[in-house]
Amino acid sequence: MKRLSVLVIGLGVMFIILALILGFLGSNSSTGFAKETAWWEIQSIDTVKYSRDLAREKAKNSAFDQEIDKQISLIAETGATHVAIGTPYDKEFIPFLTRWVSAARRYGLNVWFRGNFAGWERWFGYQRITREEHLDKTREFILANGELFENGDVFSPCTECENGGPGDPRATRDFEGHKKFLIDEYKVSNVAFRRVGKNIKTNFPMNGDVARAIMDRETTKALGGVVVIDHYVSTPEKLANDIREISSRSGGRVILGEFGAPIPDLHGNLTSGQQAAWIEDSLLNLSEIPGFIGINYWVSFGGGTRLWENNFSQRPAADVIEKYFKPKVLSGRVIDEIGKPVGLAKIILGVKYVNADKKGFFNIPYISEGQALKIEASGYKKESVSLDDNQDKVIVLRKESPSIFYRIQRFIYAIFG
After folding, report:
1. Per-residue pLDDT averaged across 114-120, rounded?
2. Is the pLDDT score of 203 beyond 70?
3. C-alpha 367: how far from its chain's center?
4. Confidence (pLDDT) at 393
5. How far, in Å, CA of 134 to CA of 335, rounded?
């Protein structure tokens, strides 16, 4: 009887050990890494000099499609997530707008619709329209053209509203009326997008000083918690400080709706190399700001801040944009001391963080090396490792309070792992 009991116990122990080993083997299977992440939610380049300014001149010029295609292809190569298209929303311009949008889709880009109705600022000889007319036109435009939009697009119903309509609130002092108009536009747009079954982010680019005047916490919340500023300043340091200030004042996340250099009155006449250096310093500062979520570089072609020449040759500034739009990516996996994945662990690198997938895999973008990668997970001790290269990393987390059963597993893993 004793021998039988010992045999049963022995078989039981062996069964447990075998189960543990099989558990280890099963836990190490891999299905690949989680999706890579861009540095900012919105990475856009503006085409306004061609998509708006030439909207009537090139309306019936089919050969212009080659120009559109080439410009969009170059923008896509930088790692942009969006292309900003400034074509007016009036019926006259819908065919021209469609040509730009179609090109963006061919190259896998979302669209930031950064136009307006021509009557708001009296573009192309249109008659001035009122706020009420603008609201009606916005609703009609979305409902009639739902096929133009794709989930993930951005829509600005009234880009720099202060430049048209009843006037700049800084001059008219009608701050409350201006805020109400933006909130009404936001509601009308969102209702219309729901009706056409599209998930589109609506925002309102405005001058930085206008944002300081109207984007209080209540207004910012009513506009989706996002402040979009078209902002040109003298130094990269001032740009970063202004964004921090506006974010703090408004309580919102910030997007640069327009940003570029050189502006002669602010920066002088920079060489192409100096332009690239100014943008490099600016983007480095911006990459370190929590709550800064997007950027639209102004412009791609046709202006003093351009990234490409008319013959499509690339300026050094475009290389800088690409460096930040397509950052390096660190891949890795988080496991525990017995080789099992720590799913949904939080990986933090500066202002960026991602969660590992259920099998512990993660990808996180980074700009520069020398930073510390921090890893957190419920029930585990926090870990920190140096970011010394872009090689795949396996990060081992230790239990805060390991059970006896876990300790046995750890011991066996040390032998068989």
Report:
1. 98
2. yes
3. 15
4. 86
5. 55
- Judged against a pLDDT cut of 60, whether residue 20 lies above it is answered with no
Q: How far apart are the C-alpha atoms of 110 and 325, rounded to whole Å?
A: 14
Residue 63 backbone phi and psi in degrees, to 5: -65, -20
d(CA 186, CA 196): 16
The predicted structure's pLDDT at residue 391? 61
Decide: helix, strand or coil at residue 146: helix
pLDDT band per the 50, 70, 90 thresholds, residue 9: very low
CA distance 417 to 411: 10
Calculate mean pLDDT across residues 28-46. 68
> What's the rounded mean pLDDT across residues 175-182?
98
Q: With beta carbons less than 8 A apart as the criterion, state whether 49 and 301 touch.
A: yes
Q: How far is CA 264 from CA 65, 206, 239, 275, 283, in A?
A: 32, 21, 16, 11, 20
Q: Identify the bridge partners of residue 354 per DSSP, sorted by sequence position.
A: 347
The residue ranking higher by pLDDT, 32 or 384, is 384
Whether omega for the bond prior to residue 299 falls within 30 degrees of 0, making it cis, is yes
**Longest CA pairwise span in the chain (Å):** 105
Q: Judge contact between 178 and 162, C-beta under 8 A.
A: yes
Alpha helices by DSSP H, listed for 268-378, are: 272-286, 316-325
d(CA 290, CA 251): 12
Q: Is 109 helix (H, G, I), strand (E, B) or coil?
A: coil
DSSP label of 35: P
Parallel/antiparallel/unpaired status of strands 383-386 and 154-155 = unpaired
